[in-house]
UniProtKB/TrEMBL annotation:
<keyword id="KW-0804">Transcription</keyword>
<keyword id="KW-0238">DNA-binding</keyword>
<feature type="compositionally biased region" description="Basic and acidic residues">
    <location>
        <begin position="155"/>
        <end position="164"/>
    </location>
</feature>
<feature type="domain" description="HTH myb-type">
    <location>
        <begin position="62"/>
        <end position="116"/>
    </location>
</feature>
<dbReference type="Pfam" id="PF00249">
    <property type="entry name" value="Myb_DNA-binding"/>
</dbReference>
<dbReference type="GO" id="GO:0005634">
    <property type="term" value="C:nucleus"/>
</dbReference>
<feature type="domain" description="Myb-like">
    <location>
        <begin position="9"/>
        <end position="61"/>
    </location>
</feature>
<protein>
    <submittedName>
        <fullName>Transcription factor MYB 12</fullName>
    </submittedName>
</protein>
<dbReference type="InterPro" id="IPR001005">
    <property type="entry name" value="SANT/Myb"/>
</dbReference>
<feature type="region of interest" description="Disordered">
    <location>
        <begin position="116"/>
        <end position="168"/>
    </location>
</feature>
<feature type="compositionally biased region" description="Basic residues">
    <location>
        <begin position="138"/>
        <end position="154"/>
    </location>
</feature>
<dbReference type="GO" id="GO:0000976">
    <property type="term" value="F:transcription cis-regulatory region binding"/>
</dbReference>
<keyword id="KW-0677">Repeat</keyword>
<feature type="domain" description="HTH myb-type">
    <location>
        <begin position="9"/>
        <end position="61"/>
    </location>
</feature>
<dbReference type="InterPro" id="IPR015495">
    <property type="entry name" value="Myb_TF_plants"/>
</dbReference>
<feature type="compositionally biased region" description="Polar residues">
    <location>
        <begin position="121"/>
        <end position="130"/>
    </location>
</feature>
<dbReference type="InterPro" id="IPR009057">
    <property type="entry name" value="Homeodomain-like_sf"/>
</dbReference>
Length: 284
DNA sequence: AAACCAACCAACCGCATTTCT
DNA sequence: CAGAAATGCGGTTGGTTGGTT
């Protein structure tokens, strides 16, 4: 708090990363692991600030990153997650394996929010707009499959408008709830809050989204590393479920949630109500 | 061919939160 | 417990690309 940003240091390289820098960073992390971003650049022989290194690694160099081609299923999922979580890109990204928060944020701002606007839906509230925006003449023809930049980019869906999206900064969960930022199903709090944000975080913390495969959103319960944490959390997050001793209760709730989540957008209103009801039910 | 414009996205920046001392 | 340091997140910017005029 109040200290100078690390990137203000003079003499540090900024701007696009060179292949050599990428290699240095990758090799260093392969050898020593992630973390200690502050000291990493020096040790790795990079003239970059730690922040920059972290960003580069997280958004580009990590081996598990899936680049390009955001599938229709993924994009549907992003919309639904956004309606639940708001602009919590890292949380949304956490549910889309191989996708980064930056990528999803960019994709949202350049594609999805515009699409929702065109469909007459407010991208912030996910409510139907009373007055759908008039269909604007597209001065330019659609760009199709023309991008061949430096990477294998997503096939772009061209949309007619470019409203700059200035979304309100999401409210962070205050310390009394003490929820983890992400990827931590292990430390969820039992505290109950009535705010929408916290309801959403509760949902986020108990749903073991673990696998979304290309060509279709496939969710599996108890798959991979999250499964044990998830089970471990049941009793803490939903005491009434665990107390009942019904091993299937949570799965049922999960299933119910998925049904709501995966409903088609034709039923947006009902879908939202179902999600709200579901979320509230968790807090009883 | 050149200027203009829109689309895209990597990277930067500021700040909140968490961890460390 | 307080303050400092480290980390992570979300908003924004600016460079690049490629289509249109």
């Amino acid at each position: 708090m109040g200290r100078a940003p690390c990137c203000s240091k003079v003499g540090l390289h900024r701007g696009p990363w060179t292949p050599r820098e990428d290699t240095l960073l990758t090799k260093y992390i392969e050898a020593h692991g992630e973390g200690h971003w502050r000291s990493l650049p020096k040790k790795a022989g990079l003239l970059r600030c730690g922040k920059s290194c972290r960003l580069r690694w997280m958004n580009y160099l990590r081996p598990d990153i899936k680049r390009g081609n955001i599938t229709p299923d993924e994009d549907d999922l992003i919309i639904r997650l956004h309606s639940l979580l708001g602009n919590r890109w890292s949380l949304i990204a956490g549910r889309l394996p191989g996708r980064t928060d930056n990528e999803i944020k960019n994709y949202w701002n350049t594609h999805l929010s515009k699409r929702l606007m065109n469909e007459g839906t407010d991208p912030n509230t996910h409510q139907k707009l009373s007055q759908p925006p008039p269909p604007k003449e597209n001065k330019r023809k659609k760009k199709q499959n023309h991008k061949s930049k430096h990477k294998n980019k997503t096939e772009k869906r061209s949309l007619p408008e470019k409203p700059k999206v200035h979304l309100p900064k999401p409210t962070r969960i205050t310390s009394f709830v003490n929820l983890p930022r992400q990827d931590s199903f292990t430390t969820a709090s039992t505290n109950v809050s009535s705010s929408q944000d916290q309801v959403q975080d509760h949902i986020n913390n108990i749903i073991p989204w673990s696998d979304i495969k290309e060509g279709g959103a496939v969710f599996s319960v108890g798959d991979g590393s999250t499964s044990s944490d998830f089970e471990c959390d049941q009793s803490r997050i939903i005491p009434n479920v665990a107390a009942g001793g019904d091993d299937h209760s949570l799965e049922n709730i999960y299933e119910e949630y998925l049904q709501a989540l995966l409903k088609t957008t034709d039923q947006d209103q009902n879908y939202q109500v179902e999600l709200d009801t579901f979320a509230e039910s968790l807090l009883i």
